[in-house]
Recover the amino acids of this structure.
């Protein structure tokens, strides 16, 4: 027989549950507010004491209501926070199992895919998914099997909330580690998201790819273009993370392909391809097309990266020389339309000249006597400012002549 105290506790629980069942949206919102204030941080035993050993009955009602209203953003944030109290409760593993068995994972993922919902609601959904993933490999696999990586990377790429993107990064990191069945899927999804992600998401994705590289063990060739694409970002923090990832990738089989494309970026298409809009429209104030600017940014970033990678490894430096990196750097130095290209190419070129004696003769022939003297006696950040347009044209012509000479010699 139950004691009078236990009977009273059960009666209070039944009254509370009946109040919830009969309440409309506003009343339920008030109940959720009170629940969060009173129970945040409680353990499983404490929640059971609060609900007279019937906490699961309330969790079942919360999950059922979530299934009914998640598409309409009705009290969604507080509803998800209330469920989080159960799933995060110490010793509350059974609550997590109950939520998952009621289809909770699928609902949380669908919330991420609904464009009309608020970012703060989606962030709460990500936090709940993190609690589920933290429960072990079985739950990580469940999230992935439910197309979770696709939902997460899409939200990751398009979110306007830096905090939400950081939460997604942590969750993707969790799904990619200790989850061998799906780690490659997470990795490739991050690569695929790079071209269409926001700058902050690109930065975080690059960081995560660098962390995951050792776990995955193999760098696929599809990585080359997306990483080099974001290398040309106007956001320096994105460029920095791309360079850090490229340093990691130098230890993998994809290195030759990356180096070849990096050297190619030093020589953008001819200026004839950079047709300005104002030349094809009657509006004299129209801006030029962005393509040449973006390609020059990529050229400067490639010149900078090449210098960093060469200084990291003599072996990489020698491979770059074989790929005619010196010719490309000289072309970039002659790009009077983009000072950043000239500066970074000059710094990298100085390293090759002073490290490899045989490079000096090549550069001397390409630059000509006057420019070469400026190059040798001035600091690399400023010597190119003494170059005029005629000298720049001659420099590019000299490189073309040297390349033809090499081709004939090789033949």
């Amino acid at each position: 027989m139950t004691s009078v105290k236990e009977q009273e506790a059960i009666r209070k629980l039944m009254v509370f549950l009946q109040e919830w069942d009969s309440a409309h949206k506003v009343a339920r919102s008030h109940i959720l507010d009170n629940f969060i204030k009173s129970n945040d941080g409680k353990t499983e035993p404490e929640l059971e004491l609060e609900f007279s050993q019937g906490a699961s009955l309330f969790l079942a009602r919360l999950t059922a209501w979530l299934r009914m209203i998640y598409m309409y953003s009705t009290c969604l944030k507080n509803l998800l926070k209330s469920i989080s109290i159960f799933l995060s409760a110490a010793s509350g593993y059974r609550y997590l199992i109950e939520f998952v068995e009621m289809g909770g994972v699928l609902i949380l993922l669908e919330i991420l895919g609904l464009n009309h919902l608020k970012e703060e609601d989606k962030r709460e959904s990500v936090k709940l998914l993190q609690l589920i993933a933290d429960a072990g490999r079985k739950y990580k696999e469940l999230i992935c099997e439910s197309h979770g990586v696709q939902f997460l990377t899409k939200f990751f790429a398009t979110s306007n909330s830096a905090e939400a993107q950081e939460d997604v990064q942590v969750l993707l990191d969790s799904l990619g580690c200790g989850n061998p069945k799906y780690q490659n899927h997470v990795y490739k999804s991050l690569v695929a998201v790079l071209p269409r992600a926001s700058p902050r998401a690109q930065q975080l994705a690059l960081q995560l790819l660098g962390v995951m590289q050792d776990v995955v063990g193999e760098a696929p060739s599809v990585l080359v273009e997306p990483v080099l694409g974001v290398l040309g970002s106007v956001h320096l923090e994105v460029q920095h993370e791309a360079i850090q990832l490229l340093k990691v990738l130098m230890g993998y089989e994809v290195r030759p392909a990356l180096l070849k494309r990096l050297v190619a970026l030093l020589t953008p298409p001819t200026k004839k391809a950079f047709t300005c809009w104002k030349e094809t429209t009657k509006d004299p104030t129209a801006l030029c097309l962005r393509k040449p600017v973006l390609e020059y940014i990529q050229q400067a970033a490639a010149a900078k990266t090449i210098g960093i990678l060469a200084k990291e490894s003599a072996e990489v430096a020698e491979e770059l020389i074989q790929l005619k990196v010196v010719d490309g750097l000289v072309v970039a130095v002659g790009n009077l339309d983009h000072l950043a290209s000239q500066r970074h190419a000059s710094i990298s070129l100085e390293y090759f000249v002073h490290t490899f004696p045989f490079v000096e003769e090549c550069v001397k022939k390409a630059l000509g006597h006057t420019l070469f003297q400026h190059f040798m006696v001035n600091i690399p950040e400023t010597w190119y400012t003494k170059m005029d347009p005629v000298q720049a044209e001659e420099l590019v012509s000299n490189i073309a002549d040297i390349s033809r000479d090499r081709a004939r010699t090789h033949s």
